Automatic annotation (TrEMBL):
Coiled-coil residue spans: none
InterPro entries: Ald_DH/histidinol_DH, Ald_DH_C, Ald_DH_CS_CYS, Ald_DH_N, Aldehyde_DH_dom, Aldehyde_DH_Superfamily
Organism: Aureibaculum marinum
Biological classification of the source: Bacteria, Pseudomonadati, Bacteroidota, Flavobacteriia, Flavobacteriales
Cross-referenced Pfam families: Aldedh
CDD domains in the cross-refs: ALDH_F11_NP-GAPDH
Protein name: NADP-dependent glyceraldehyde-3-phosphate dehydrogenase
Amino acid sequence: LVDGELKTWSGKTTDVFSTISTTETYQPTLLGSIPYMEKETALEALKAACDAYDRGQGNWPTMRVEKRIACLEKFVDLMKTKRDEVVKLLMWEIGKSLEDSQKEFDRTIDYIYDTIEEYKELDRDSAKFTNQDGIYAHIKRGPLGVVLCLGPYNYPLNETFALLIPALIMGNTVIFKPAKFGVLCISPLLEAFQKSFPKGVVNIIYGRGRQVATPIMQTGRIDVLALIGNSKSAIALQDQHPNKNRLRLVLGLEAKNPAIILPDADLDLTIDECIAGSLSFNGQRCTALKLIYVHENIREEFNKRYAERVDALKFGNPWEEGVKLTPLPEPDKPAYIQELIDDALSKGAKIINKKGGETTDNFIFPAVLYPVTKNMRVYKEEQFGPVVPIVSFTDIQEPLHDMADSNYGQQVSLFGKNVHSLAPLIDTLVNLVCRVNLNSSCQRGPDVFPFTGRKDSAVSTLSVHDALRSFSIRTFVASKDN
Ligand code: G3H
């Protein structure tokens, strides 16, 4: 979708495969194809976004609030008619279970409605004059300019729209490149974008980052880089911008969220939360629990019961009932997880669950590793997949010291009964990360809560409330006359 036109593509295309196989002997399934775009089309999209931003009075950036909201409302109405199609593609493309794919779709719709309401409130609050020393100022929030938006494969809809929608509603224009996996699920929505927004306001392009995103950044015309994904890509793209000082960043990056289990923790609840926290969607969530610290006094019982529960999780295709573990969309992920396991085993860890590490063509059964120590790769690297490292501790200073030392700082889960006596510990933890979850696993939602991180985990804050601020700037007109 470039400059309001759904281009018919006669050039090279790229096939999109699902790692889910329907044949007796394993074979990835061909789902469709996408245009293989290069620099020229990317720059056309950029030009369209710049023109739409610069077009002047009454157009997108200066459009009346009610009119801009009407465009979003039209979009969400059209989007709702595509639920089944999008949900099916989510299952096939990224292997997300039926229930979770439906949740992702519905959560995205709610996010759009909530954003519209928040925007109305922001607009009401900002339409005020203030008088200071005889100068009247009409301060409001205005757009930042042209946004390059890139979303992740684990939430190709919800995470991406958490960038796209606030950027749009604040009056920015956007070039959006869907993730490599979870790319086709955007196709049913292209027409909705085309019909709802003025031309050039949303441009959707396909292709490799190097072919399309790099040339866009090199022009220096991008005002905001909005990306949820890995730091490597974020840094590589920033580096292409000729004047980095001009570039605003809205980034959601890696995390290595730990669970800390204290000796008095309620083990039934803790195990339930740790199972969901570490292995929902096979651990492919930035908010997943990626390291479990358990107090030595309860370590034996926790390990035994947690390992049994992991083995009881059902693996299967996303649409099958009761399935908790599903095929991994990245073909090279099982090999990477295997590398982490081998490294840990060679340094003294053991797989403590019976099925841990069993592989099929598109899956590796979650391996629970214990004892994990600092010299192992799985201790530091963000595994983003089905392997769970367990570390035991006797002194709370041990996990605290590791967290202070970590490159990441998104969230932590703390399990213990006497939460009131934990107040000083909670104060310490909240200064190491941005969200402390008491007796519950880490998560992004509800989406009205601030979603951010310290160190290499995030730049800027997302939430229904914060995202509108992240994609805008306070501007004003000052005058001596009221
Ligand atoms: O991958 C990171 C997502 O923001 C996680 O969101 O906690 O709702 O699964 P979630």
